[in-house]
């Protein structure tokens, strides 16, 4: 006995396209480390670690949770696009293209 499944090809294509976008997004770095903060902000690594501890308090995170690029940028007032591109070795034009395609989204974090 065979089971026949009816589906809309267009809907399947849309779902597959969204799945591929999610997979592609997973390839980008979304977290930031103290060593990277120290380089970007030209501070010592101990200062960067202190900032991370403060950010974890501000964003009510546990000790073992990461700080995202978006949280760091919101806290320090640094442009998200610049830091994201720097950490992901991406040119700003590529970032804009991915943003237009909907592959990536600008985070919305308010302090």
Structural notes for this entry:
This protein is mainly α. The protein has helices at residues 9-25, 34-41, 45-58, 69-76, 80-87, 92-101. Helix 2 (34-41) crosses helix 3. It starts with 8 loop residues before the first helix and ends in a 10-residue tail after the last helix.
Compact summary:
The chain has 111 residues and is mostly helical. 59% of the residues lie in helices and 0% in strands.
Termini separation comes to 59 Å
- Based on DSSP secondary structure assignment, what is the total number of beta strands? 0
The number of helical elements comes to: 6
Strand share of the residues?
under 5%
Oligomer: single chain
Tell me the count of domains: 1
> Roughly what is the average pLDDT, rounded to an integer?
87
What does the largest sheet look like? none
Give helix % range: 55-70%
- Overall geometric form: elongated
- What letter string, H or E per element, gives the SSE order? HHHHHH
Radius of gyration: 19 Å
Uncertain spans: none
Structural class: mainly alpha
